[in-house]
Design brief:
about 140 residues, alpha+beta
Length: about 140
């Protein structure tokens, strides 16, 4: 059984002002899973009112970074050193939800997989990222 989910919004506010500026919210989780939400907004779109891929990637990277952070040894820090995203669909309204889970927890890297879904539960994107473990 995994640990209880905790409110991670204060952690995001302190360490990732870019994510806060984009509107990433509802951040909750633990070392096993982190969840975050981003609402569709016209200023986050590209042509045709489609949520920009960069906004989706920023959501995935932010949720993934928090998941990696929760898997660090005491005093450790992390930074994304590699990220790959596959897009499966477009979002023209509503919100997208990201769910990040660790695939590998090593001494020098943490690998996170993040799935992004639209409000109807349709799989929109999958991001796999590698986070370097620093200062541990």
């Amino acid at each position: 059984m995994s640990a209880e989910m905790q409110d991670l919004a204060p952690l995001m506010a302190e360490h990732m002002p870019f994510g806060v500026m984009l509107g990433i919210e509802a951040l909750a989780g633990n070392a096993e899973e982190v969840e975050a939400t981003l609402s569709w907004a016209p200023e986050l779109c590209t042509a045709g009112g489609v949520l920009h891929g960069g906004a989706l990637m920023a959501l995935a990277d932010s949720a993934g970074a928090v998941c990696a952070f929760l898997n660090l040894p005491p005093g450790g820090r992390t930074v994304t050193i590699e990220s790959k995203t596959n897009f499966f669909g477009a979002v023209r309204e509503g919100a997208v939800n990201a769910r990040s889970k660790p695939l590998h927890r090593g001494r020098s890297t943490v690998v996170i997989e993040t799935d992004v879904f639209d409000a109807n539960g349709r799989h929109i994107a999958r991001t796999t990222q590698t986070q370097a473990v620093l200062g541990a």
